[in-house]
Specification:
By secondary structure, the chain is of the alpha/beta class. It has 10 helices and 9 strands. The protein starts with a strand and ends in a 6-residue tail after the last helix.
Length: 286
């Protein structure tokens, strides 16, 4: 599914004209996001169901994703620090949206995934501390010499009876919610994407392979392919991962070239480096 057909960023001349006309009387340390995409040769992106921005640090891929997200009012969870020039830059960008409206437009960044993993750990730590308290309550109640003297002791009586009729683990389970399963970083990261990505929506993913082992990257690639093929989603992402770059039918913009050009995944430097390395060690794989 294609919800957004293209985005046009301002040309180098248009940026220079704006800076000269609008801010020539003032001195600024940065005009960001001006002087980022145009000088790197990225002026227009034509989107497919899956579109990938590839490039090294400083190539502008994250800037492009954030500009796209802001231009189309994508939902985001993590705080995004914008410069004073962002509104001006967005005004001179143009987006071509299709008539069909996506159910959701969302950008997912590495900060979102990291915060999610941190929250799981914090919740589990709190539950673990409570469990230790319940363990001690169980032992105190079970082996106490309790005698009920008044109705004020009724609650303690129930605790003693319950502790003596259950094993420690059964007693604890009955008193405490089950631990949220603490997953590895990679499992948590993968679960975050599967929970956040729904149907008939447009998603912008900034290097989703972070925190994922190769096996999980393959699973994420298959998941992304299925969401675009069967569930009406459009995916725009940046990545260095050969597993994601190899997605069938994905349109890849190589931002390491100037001007940026559409390339096959097998033509990209990062992928070629992997290929040459494993080719040199081919005899060792037996």
């Amino acid at each position: 599914m294609i919800y957004m057909s293209s985005i046009q960023f301002p040309s180098d001349d248009r940026e220079s004209s704006f800076i000269w006309d609008e801010v020539k009387s003032k001195a600024y340390n940065t005009y960001y996001p001006f002087r980022t995409l145009a000088i790197n040769g990225l002026q227009r992106i034509e989107f497919d169901p899956i579109t990938i921005l590839y490039g090294g640090n400083g190539s502008g891929k994250s800037t492009a994703l954030n500009v796209i997200a802001e231009k189309i009012n994508a939902k985001r969870e993590s705080v995004f620090n914008k410069t004073n020039f962002y509104p001006d830059y967005l005004k001179i960008c143009t987006v071509d949206m299709r008539a069909v409206t996506p159910a959701e437009i969302r950008i997912i960044t590495s900060d979102d995934v990291f915060d999610y993993m941190l929250n799981i750990r914090n919740i589990n730590e709190g539950i673990h501390e409570k469990r230790e308290e319940i363990f001690q309550d169980y032992l105190d109640a079970k082996y106490s010499q309790f005698q009920m003297k008044s109705m004020e002791d009724y609650a303690q009586l129930k605790k003693v009876v319950k502790s003596r009729s259950k094993t420690q683990s059964a007693y604890t389970r009955s008193e405490l919610m089950a631990n949220i399963r603490e997953l590895s970083n990679g499992e948590s990261a993968y679960m975050y994407f599967t929970e956040k990505i729904g149907e008939n929506s447009l998603y912008i993913l900034d290097e989703p392979e972070n925190s994922l082992a190769p096996k999980r990257q393959i699973e994420l690639a298959n998941f992304i392919q299925d969401t675009a093929r069967f569930y009406g989603c459009q995916i725009i992402m940046s990545t260095h991962s050969p597993f994601l770059l190899s997605l069938p039918g994905a349109k890849i913009y190589n931002l390491d070239e100037n001007p940026a050009a559409v390339r096959k995944w097998t033509e990209l430097e990062n992928v070629r480096t992997y290929y040459e390395f494993f080719s040199c060690h081919k005899s060792e794989f037996v």
